[in-house]
């Protein structure tokens, strides 16, 4: 009696295992969405920044230029 229960259990286990693996292993398919790269130019325009900096440099050089010849008349009196 025990042997028939064991054989029945083994047969049921064997049949259920074979139906569970009937299709075999299938690797999961993962769909990867493409990455969208933003190719807009930067908000600062280098075509305007560089000349503006050069203009500021010229203005600073002109403003700091000291060509006053006040030293010539410093020691003489009329």
Molecular structure report:
- It contains two helices and no strands.
- It has helices spanning 2-20, 46-64.
Instruction: Please report the number of helical segments.
Output: 2
How many strands in all?
0
> What portion of residues belong to β-strands?
under 5%
How many angstroms separate the termini? 145 Å
| Gyration radius from CA atoms, angstroms | 46 Å
Helix-strand category: mainly alpha
Shape: rod-shaped
Signal peptide: 1-22
Protein name: Ferrochelatase
Keywords: Membrane, Signal, Transmembrane, Transmembrane helix
Transmembrane segments: 46-63
Overview features:
mainly alpha; rod-shaped
In short:
This protein is mainly α and 78 residues long. The chain contains 2 helices and no strands.
SSE blueprint:
Blueprint: H1 2-20, H2 46-64
Organism: Paracoccus niistensis
Signal peptide: 1-22
Keywords: Membrane, Signal, Transmembrane, Transmembrane helix
């Amino acid at each position: 009696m025990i042997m028939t229960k064991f054989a029945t259990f083994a047969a049921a286990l064997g049949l259920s295992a074979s139906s569970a693996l009937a299709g075999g292993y299938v690797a999961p398919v993962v769909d990867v969405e493409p990455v969208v790269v933003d190719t807009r130019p930067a908000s600062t325009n280098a075509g305007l920044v560089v000349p503006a900096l050069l203009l500021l440099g010229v203005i600073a050089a002109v403003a700091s230029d000291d060509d006053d010849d006040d030293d010539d008349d410093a020691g003489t009196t009329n």
